[in-house]
Protein backbone atom coordinates (compact mmCIF):
# COMPACT_ATOMS: atom_id res chain seq x y z
CA UNK A 1 0.00 0.00 0.00
CA UNK A 2 3.06 2.25 0.07
CA UNK A 3 3.12 1.77 -3.70
CA UNK A 4 6.81 0.88 -3.71
CA UNK A 5 7.92 3.80 -1.51
CA UNK A 6 9.73 3.19 1.78
CA UNK A 7 7.35 5.39 3.75
CA UNK A 8 3.81 6.64 3.52
CA UNK A 9 5.08 10.20 3.68
CA UNK A 10 7.10 9.82 0.49
CA UNK A 11 4.21 8.11 -1.27
CA UNK A 12 1.95 10.96 -0.22
CA UNK A 13 4.42 13.59 -1.40
CA UNK A 14 4.43 11.87 -4.80
CA UNK A 15 0.62 11.58 -4.76
CA UNK A 16 0.40 15.37 -4.95
CA UNK A 17 0.17 15.93 -8.71
CA UNK A 18 -2.82 13.58 -8.82
CA UNK A 19 -4.28 15.08 -5.63
CA UNK A 20 -4.10 18.57 -7.21
CA UNK A 21 -5.83 17.30 -10.36
CA UNK A 22 -8.53 15.50 -8.39
CA UNK A 23 -9.23 18.50 -6.17
CA UNK A 24 -9.31 21.03 -8.99
CA UNK A 25 -10.89 18.51 -11.42
CA UNK A 26 -14.46 19.21 -12.29
CA UNK A 27 -14.50 22.44 -10.29
CA UNK A 28 -13.25 24.45 -13.27
CA UNK A 29 -15.71 24.88 -16.13
CA UNK A 30 -14.69 23.14 -19.34
CA UNK A 31 -13.87 26.39 -21.10
CA UNK A 32 -11.63 27.36 -18.19
CA UNK A 33 -13.54 30.56 -17.52
CA UNK A 34 -15.13 29.97 -14.12
CA UNK A 35 -15.16 28.01 -10.89
CA UNK A 36 -18.04 25.61 -10.37
CA UNK A 37 -18.66 24.85 -6.72
CA UNK A 38 -22.02 23.11 -6.64
CA UNK A 39 -21.36 21.87 -3.12
CA UNK A 40 -21.50 25.41 -1.72
CA UNK A 41 -25.11 26.08 -0.81
CA UNK A 42 -24.65 29.82 -0.18
CA UNK A 43 -26.67 31.95 -2.59
CA UNK A 44 -25.14 35.00 -4.28
CA UNK A 45 -27.17 37.16 -1.87
CA UNK A 46 -25.81 35.32 1.13
CA UNK A 47 -22.29 35.74 -0.19
CA UNK A 48 -22.91 39.46 -0.63
CA UNK A 49 -23.89 39.72 3.02
CA UNK A 50 -20.55 38.35 4.30
CA UNK A 51 -18.77 41.12 6.22
CA UNK A 52 -15.79 39.20 7.54
CA UNK A 53 -14.28 35.72 7.45
CA UNK A 54 -12.63 33.70 10.21
CA UNK A 55 -10.43 30.77 9.25
CA UNK A 56 -9.89 28.33 12.11
CA UNK A 57 -7.71 25.21 12.20
CA UNK A 58 -4.73 23.52 13.88
CA UNK A 59 -1.16 22.78 12.82
CA UNK A 60 -0.63 22.34 9.12
CA UNK A 61 -4.28 23.05 8.36
CA UNK A 62 -3.82 26.41 10.12
CA UNK A 63 -0.84 27.12 7.88
CA UNK A 64 -3.03 26.43 4.85
CA UNK A 65 -5.48 28.86 6.43
CA UNK A 66 -2.81 31.57 6.53
CA UNK A 67 -2.38 31.20 2.78
CA UNK A 68 -6.19 31.19 2.46
CA UNK A 69 -6.38 34.48 4.34
CA UNK A 70 -4.00 36.20 1.91
CA UNK A 71 -5.72 34.67 -1.12
CA UNK A 72 -9.22 35.74 -0.09
CA UNK A 73 -8.17 39.21 1.03
CA UNK A 74 -6.32 39.76 -2.24
CA UNK A 75 -9.03 38.43 -4.54
CA UNK A 76 -12.14 39.54 -2.68
CA UNK A 77 -11.09 42.36 -0.33
CA UNK A 78 -13.13 41.01 2.58
CA UNK A 79 -11.29 41.14 5.94
CA UNK A 80 -10.09 37.68 7.00
CA UNK A 81 -8.64 36.54 10.30
CA UNK A 82 -6.87 33.21 10.65
CA UNK A 83 -6.71 31.63 14.07
CA UNK A 84 -5.45 28.52 15.77
CA UNK A 85 -8.55 26.64 16.97
CA UNK A 86 -7.37 26.17 20.57
CA UNK A 87 -6.94 29.95 20.85
CA UNK A 88 -10.07 30.90 18.94
CA UNK A 89 -12.45 28.91 21.06
CA UNK A 90 -11.36 30.60 24.29
CA UNK A 91 -10.84 34.17 23.16
CA UNK A 92 -14.51 35.10 22.81
CA UNK A 93 -14.15 35.86 19.09
CA UNK A 94 -16.50 38.46 17.67
CA UNK A 95 -18.77 36.39 15.46
CA UNK A 96 -21.95 37.78 13.92
CA UNK A 97 -24.44 36.31 11.46
CA UNK A 98 -22.49 38.21 8.77
CA UNK A 99 -19.32 36.26 9.63
CA UNK A 100 -18.36 33.28 7.50
CA UNK A 101 -16.32 30.82 9.53
CA UNK A 102 -14.13 28.45 7.54
CA UNK A 103 -12.78 25.46 9.46
CA UNK A 104 -9.98 23.44 7.90
CA UNK A 105 -9.24 19.87 8.97
CA UNK A 106 -7.77 16.95 7.10
CA UNK A 107 -9.31 14.38 9.43
CA UNK A 108 -12.42 16.35 10.28
CA UNK A 109 -12.08 15.01 13.83
CA UNK A 110 -9.68 17.43 15.55
CA UNK A 111 -11.24 18.27 18.92
CA UNK A 112 -10.31 21.95 19.03
CA UNK A 113 -11.40 22.58 15.45
CA UNK A 114 -14.72 20.86 16.08
CA UNK A 115 -15.25 22.92 19.25
CA UNK A 116 -14.53 26.11 17.29
CA UNK A 117 -17.04 25.05 14.65
CA UNK A 118 -19.71 24.53 17.33
CA UNK A 119 -18.92 27.88 18.94
CA UNK A 120 -19.28 29.58 15.55
CA UNK A 121 -22.63 27.94 14.91
CA UNK A 122 -23.91 28.89 18.36
CA UNK A 123 -23.06 32.49 17.50
CA UNK A 124 -25.13 32.32 14.34
CA UNK A 125 -22.34 32.23 11.76
CA UNK A 126 -22.42 30.13 8.65
CA UNK A 127 -19.70 27.48 8.71
CA UNK A 128 -17.88 26.16 5.71
CA UNK A 129 -15.59 23.16 6.20
CA UNK A 130 -12.58 22.23 4.12
CA UNK A 131 -11.89 18.59 4.93
CA UNK A 132 -10.41 15.47 3.43
CA UNK A 133 -12.79 13.01 5.07
CA UNK A 134 -16.33 12.75 3.76
CA UNK A 135 -18.64 11.87 6.64
CA UNK A 136 -16.26 13.17 9.35
CA UNK A 137 -17.68 15.06 12.34
CA UNK A 138 -16.62 18.41 10.88
CA UNK A 139 -18.23 17.61 7.54
CA UNK A 140 -21.47 16.52 9.21
CA UNK A 141 -21.79 19.62 11.36
CA UNK A 142 -20.76 22.33 8.89
CA UNK A 143 -23.28 24.11 6.66
CA UNK A 144 -21.16 23.73 3.54
CA UNK A 145 -18.35 21.29 2.82
CA UNK A 146 -15.54 21.65 0.33
CA UNK A 147 -13.83 18.28 0.08
CA UNK A 148 -10.13 18.01 -0.68
CA UNK A 149 -9.66 14.95 -2.83
CA UNK A 150 -6.21 14.06 -1.52
CA UNK A 151 -7.12 10.44 -0.76
CA UNK A 152 -6.21 8.83 2.57
CA UNK A 153 -3.28 10.48 4.33
CA UNK A 154 -1.55 7.98 6.63
CA UNK A 155 1.78 9.59 7.58
CA UNK A 156 1.54 11.78 10.67
CA UNK A 157 3.27 14.59 8.79
CA UNK A 158 0.67 16.19 6.58
CA UNK A 159 1.68 16.82 2.97
CA UNK A 160 -0.97 16.28 0.32
CA UNK A 161 -3.72 17.38 2.72
CA UNK A 162 -1.99 20.77 3.03
CA UNK A 163 -1.50 21.27 -0.69
CA UNK A 164 -5.07 20.26 -1.53
CA UNK A 165 -6.28 22.65 1.17
CA UNK A 166 -4.40 25.32 -0.77
CA UNK A 167 -6.26 24.27 -3.93
CA UNK A 168 -9.54 24.52 -2.03
CA UNK A 169 -8.70 28.08 -0.95
CA UNK A 170 -7.72 29.12 -4.48
CA UNK A 171 -11.01 27.74 -5.82
CA UNK A 172 -13.01 29.32 -3.03
CA UNK A 173 -11.28 32.69 -3.39
CA UNK A 174 -11.93 32.72 -7.12
CA UNK A 175 -15.51 31.58 -6.60
CA UNK A 176 -16.19 34.42 -4.17
CA UNK A 177 -14.45 36.84 -6.54
CA UNK A 178 -16.51 35.77 -9.53
CA UNK A 179 -19.72 36.02 -7.49
CA UNK A 180 -18.88 39.43 -6.06
CA UNK A 181 -17.24 40.59 -9.29
CA UNK A 182 -14.11 41.75 -7.52
CA UNK A 183 -11.78 40.36 -10.19
CA UNK A 184 -11.54 40.95 -13.93
CA UNK A 185 -12.72 37.97 -15.94
CA UNK A 186 -9.36 37.80 -17.72
CA UNK A 187 -7.61 37.53 -14.35
CA UNK A 188 -9.86 34.63 -13.34
CA UNK A 189 -9.05 32.82 -16.59
CA UNK A 190 -5.34 33.46 -16.16
CA UNK A 191 -5.34 32.16 -12.58
CA UNK A 192 -7.34 29.04 -13.45
CA UNK A 193 -4.96 28.26 -16.32
CA UNK A 194 -1.97 28.67 -14.02
CA UNK A 195 -3.62 26.35 -11.48
CA UNK A 196 -4.02 23.70 -14.13
CA UNK A 197 -0.27 23.80 -14.82
CA UNK A 198 0.61 23.17 -11.16
CA UNK A 199 0.46 19.34 -11.22
CA UNK A 200 3.03 19.13 -14.00
CA UNK A 201 5.20 21.71 -12.28
CA UNK A 202 5.11 19.66 -9.08
CA UNK A 203 6.24 16.65 -11.10
CA UNK A 204 9.21 18.60 -12.40
CA UNK A 205 10.21 19.53 -8.84
CA UNK A 206 9.87 15.94 -7.64
CA UNK A 207 12.16 14.85 -10.46
CA UNK A 208 14.90 16.92 -8.77
CA UNK A 209 14.45 15.46 -5.28
CA UNK A 210 18.13 14.38 -5.21
CA UNK A 211 19.18 18.04 -4.94
CA UNK A 212 17.13 18.36 -1.78
CA UNK A 213 18.35 15.03 -0.45
CA UNK A 214 21.96 16.21 -0.69
CA UNK A 215 21.12 19.44 1.14
CA UNK A 216 19.13 17.54 3.81
CA UNK A 217 22.12 15.31 4.51
CA UNK A 218 24.26 18.39 4.92
CA UNK A 219 21.98 20.07 7.45
CA UNK A 220 20.97 16.88 9.31
CA UNK A 221 23.74 17.33 11.88
CA UNK A 222 22.67 20.87 12.77
CA UNK A 223 20.55 21.62 15.81
CA UNK A 224 19.05 24.92 14.65
CA UNK A 225 17.79 26.20 11.36
CA UNK A 226 15.84 29.24 10.23
CA UNK A 227 13.32 29.84 7.49
CA UNK A 228 12.70 33.38 6.30
CA UNK A 229 10.27 34.90 3.84
CA UNK A 230 7.76 37.70 3.34
CA UNK A 231 4.02 37.57 2.71
CA UNK A 232 2.93 34.21 1.31
CA UNK A 233 6.53 33.02 1.52
CA UNK A 234 6.37 33.53 5.28
CA UNK A 235 3.20 31.42 5.50
CA UNK A 236 4.99 28.61 3.62
CA UNK A 237 8.06 29.07 5.82
CA UNK A 238 5.91 28.33 8.88
CA UNK A 239 4.75 25.08 7.31
CA UNK A 240 8.29 24.09 6.28
CA UNK A 241 9.49 24.75 9.81
CA UNK A 242 6.71 22.73 11.44
CA UNK A 243 7.38 19.80 9.11
CA UNK A 244 11.10 19.84 9.86
CA UNK A 245 10.56 19.95 13.64
CA UNK A 246 7.89 17.31 13.54
CA UNK A 247 9.84 14.54 11.86
CA UNK A 248 13.55 15.45 11.95
CA UNK A 249 13.48 16.94 15.50
CA UNK A 250 15.81 19.70 14.31
CA UNK A 251 14.83 22.92 16.01
CA UNK A 252 13.74 25.49 13.49
CA UNK A 253 11.97 28.79 13.39
CA UNK A 254 10.17 30.59 10.62
CA UNK A 255 10.58 34.33 10.60
CA UNK A 256 9.12 37.14 8.53
CA UNK A 257 12.32 38.21 6.79
CA UNK A 258 11.95 41.86 7.78
CA UNK A 259 11.54 40.96 11.45
CA UNK A 260 14.93 39.24 11.85
CA UNK A 261 16.78 42.32 12.90
CA UNK A 262 14.28 42.89 15.72
CA UNK A 263 15.86 40.11 17.75
CA UNK A 264 16.43 36.81 16.00
CA UNK A 265 19.43 38.01 14.05
CA UNK A 266 21.34 37.58 17.33
CA UNK A 267 21.17 33.82 16.75
CA UNK A 268 22.76 33.91 13.32
CA UNK A 269 26.42 32.96 13.45
CA UNK A 270 28.99 31.17 11.31
CA UNK A 271 27.47 28.16 9.52
CA UNK A 272 23.86 28.45 10.75
CA UNK A 273 21.61 27.17 7.95
CA UNK A 274 18.95 29.60 6.75
CA UNK A 275 16.40 28.84 4.07
CA UNK A 276 15.19 31.98 2.31
CA UNK A 277 12.02 31.90 0.25
CA UNK A 278 11.83 34.57 -2.42
CA UNK A 279 8.82 34.02 -4.65
CA UNK A 280 6.89 37.22 -4.03
CA UNK A 281 8.15 39.25 -6.96
CA UNK A 282 7.43 42.68 -5.52
CA UNK A 283 9.22 41.84 -2.29
CA UNK A 284 12.29 40.06 -3.65
CA UNK A 285 14.52 43.09 -3.37
CA UNK A 286 13.55 43.48 0.29
CA UNK A 287 14.15 39.78 0.96
CA UNK A 288 17.55 39.99 -0.72
CA UNK A 289 18.59 42.73 1.68
CA UNK A 290 17.51 40.53 4.61
CA UNK A 291 19.53 37.66 3.12
CA UNK A 292 22.55 39.95 3.13
CA UNK A 293 22.03 40.62 6.84
CA UNK A 294 22.29 36.86 7.34
CA UNK A 295 25.27 36.13 5.08
CA UNK A 296 27.20 39.06 6.58
CA UNK A 297 27.07 37.16 9.89
CA UNK A 298 28.19 33.86 8.41
CA UNK A 299 24.75 32.27 7.98
CA UNK A 300 24.63 29.80 5.10
CA UNK A 301 21.65 30.46 2.90
CA UNK A 302 19.69 28.15 0.64
CA UNK A 303 17.51 30.34 -1.56
CA UNK A 304 14.26 29.09 -3.02
CA UNK A 305 13.59 31.19 -6.09
CA UNK A 306 11.96 31.19 -9.49
CA UNK A 307 14.01 29.77 -12.36
CA UNK A 308 16.09 32.57 -13.79
CA UNK A 309 15.90 34.81 -10.71
CA UNK A 310 19.55 35.77 -10.69
CA UNK A 311 19.05 38.62 -8.25
CA UNK A 312 18.21 36.20 -5.45
CA UNK A 313 20.61 33.49 -6.66
CA UNK A 314 23.52 35.95 -6.51
CA UNK A 315 22.95 36.68 -2.85
CA UNK A 316 22.84 33.10 -1.51
CA UNK A 317 25.18 30.11 -1.13
CA UNK A 318 22.97 27.75 -3.13
CA UNK A 319 19.60 27.89 -4.85
CA UNK A 320 16.76 25.49 -5.44
CA UNK A 321 14.68 26.74 -8.32
CA UNK A 322 10.91 26.62 -8.74
CA UNK A 323 9.10 26.78 -12.09
CA UNK A 324 7.42 30.12 -12.79
CA UNK A 325 3.83 30.54 -11.68
CA UNK A 326 1.68 33.37 -10.34
CA UNK A 327 3.08 34.57 -7.02
CA UNK A 328 -0.32 33.87 -5.46
CA UNK A 329 -0.03 30.19 -6.42
CA UNK A 330 3.65 29.78 -5.53
CA UNK A 331 2.99 28.17 -2.10
CA UNK A 332 1.68 25.11 -3.98
CA UNK A 333 5.17 24.67 -5.44
CA UNK A 334 7.47 26.11 -2.78
CA UNK A 335 6.29 23.74 -0.09
CA UNK A 336 7.32 20.65 -2.10
CA UNK A 337 11.10 21.01 -1.58
CA UNK A 338 10.42 21.79 2.09
CA UNK A 339 8.43 18.57 2.48
CA UNK A 340 11.27 16.65 0.82
CA UNK A 341 13.79 18.38 3.05
CA UNK A 342 12.05 17.28 6.24
CA UNK A 343 11.63 13.75 4.88
CA UNK A 344 15.30 13.33 3.97
CA UNK A 345 16.53 15.04 7.16
CA UNK A 346 14.38 12.69 9.25
CA UNK A 347 15.72 9.72 7.30
CA UNK A 348 19.32 10.87 7.69
CA UNK A 349 18.81 11.08 11.45
CA UNK A 350 17.40 7.56 11.60
CA UNK A 351 13.96 8.65 12.81
CA UNK A 352 10.66 6.91 12.27
CA UNK A 353 9.48 9.16 9.44
CA UNK A 354 5.83 8.14 9.40
CA UNK A 355 5.37 7.97 13.18
CA UNK A 356 7.29 10.77 14.88
CA UNK A 357 7.66 10.61 18.64
CA UNK A 358 4.92 12.05 20.88
CA UNK A 359 2.50 12.74 18.02
CA UNK A 360 -0.77 11.28 16.79
CA UNK A 361 -2.26 11.57 13.33
CA UNK A 362 -5.53 12.88 14.60
CA UNK A 363 -5.79 14.87 17.82
CA UNK A 364 -9.25 14.07 19.13
CA UNK A 365 -8.58 15.27 22.68
CA UNK A 366 -8.19 18.85 23.79
O1 LIG B 1 -6.76 16.53 10.87
P1 LIG B 1 -6.42 18.00 11.03
O2 LIG B 1 -6.12 18.65 9.73
O3 LIG B 1 -7.45 18.75 11.80
O4 LIG B 1 -5.08 18.00 11.89
C1 LIG B 1 -4.51 19.21 12.30
C2 LIG B 1 -3.11 19.02 12.83
O5 LIG B 1 -3.10 18.16 13.94
C3 LIG B 1 -2.15 18.46 11.76
O6 LIG B 1 -2.15 19.24 10.60
C4 LIG B 1 -0.71 18.40 12.30
O7 LIG B 1 -0.23 19.68 12.53
C5 LIG B 1 0.17 17.62 11.33
N1 LIG B 1 0.72 16.44 11.97
C6 LIG B 1 1.32 18.42 10.77
O8 LIG B 1 2.05 17.69 9.83
Structure description:
The protein is of the alpha/beta class and 366 residues long. 46% of the residues lie in helices and 16% in strands. The protein contains 14 helices and ten strands. It has helices spanning 8-14, 16-24, 44-48, 59-76, 85-88, 111-122, 137-141, 160-180, 185-206, 209-219, 232-248, 284-295, 310-315, 331-348; strands spanning 52-57, 80-84, 99-105, 126-131, 144-147, 224-229, 251-256, 273-278, 300-306, 318-322. The strands form two sheets. The protein has a five-stranded parallel beta sheet with strand order 2-1-3-4-5, with helices on both faces. A five-stranded parallel beta sheet has the order 7-6-8-9-10, sandwiched between helices. Helix 13 links the parallel strand 9 and strand 10 (318-322). Helix 2 (16-24) runs antiparallel to helix 9. The protein is globular. The site of 5-amino-5-deoxy-1-O-phosphono-D-mannitol has 16 residues, from helix 4 and helix 11. 5-amino-5-deoxy-1-O-phosphono-D-mannitol is lined by residues 58-61, 105-107, 110, 113, 156-158, 242, 246, 362-363.
End-to-end CA span: 31 Å
How many runs of DSSP E, i.e. beta strands? 10
Cα-based radius of gyration, to the nearest Å: 20 Å
Order of helices and strands: HHHEHEHEHEHEHHHEHEEHEHEH
Query: What strand order characterises the main sheet?
Result: 2-1-3-4-5
Shape: globular
Q: How much helix is in the residues?
A: 40-55%
Average of the residue pLDDT scores: 96
Task: Note poorly predicted spans.
Answer: none
Main β-sheet, in a few words? 5 strands, parallel
**Structure classification:** alpha/beta
Number of helices: 14
Catalogue the ligands: 5-amino-5-deoxy-1-O-phosphono-D-mannitol
Strand content: 15-25%
